[in-house]
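Page 47, continued from p. 46.
Same chain as before, 196 aa.
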Amino acid sequence: MSEAKRQARQSRMTKETEIDVSLRLDGPAGAEAETGVGFFDHMLQLLAHHSGIGLIIKARGDLHVDAHHTVEDVGIVLGKTMREALGDMKGFRRFGWAIVPMQESLAQVSLDICGRPHLSFNTPSLPDKVGDFDTELVEEFLLALCNNLGMTLHVDVLRGQNAHHVIEAVFKALAKALEQALERREGEAPSTKGCL
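Result:
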């Protein structure tokens, strides 16, 4: 098993956003998240803490329009950074799954970091907002993450009423599934093909 440090840094600058992401897949766990979108920062902090990833995200975006570009572009850059940190795509588990409760909400996440991006996202109907955060942006973030990491992700919220609880359960379940999938293990690429 390679003992190389699984870490990376990526930046992206457009006319809409400036994003900088640094991460360490092997921790120490925790996040410095400064996106200008408070609820999203909270979810990124949960994601890092519960997955064991060390994460620094700095983002400036056109929040005078709305948070869409910022949230989506963070997903893009985070996915690319995680993919870079995995290097040759050898020596990790690949698959992960978790079922996580958050009070009345229960989220199930299954994922495969395999180079084939796909998102299946099923939640109960949610109100449009949690505070100032547009709840539809959760799916946009996850889609951008999947497409740029090369991850198949299935998110199923089995029950839930409170939008904050539902979204928090999703991010925590994603974190625990990532923790499992990213775990170091002996061997070549986690595929019978010999590569991912």
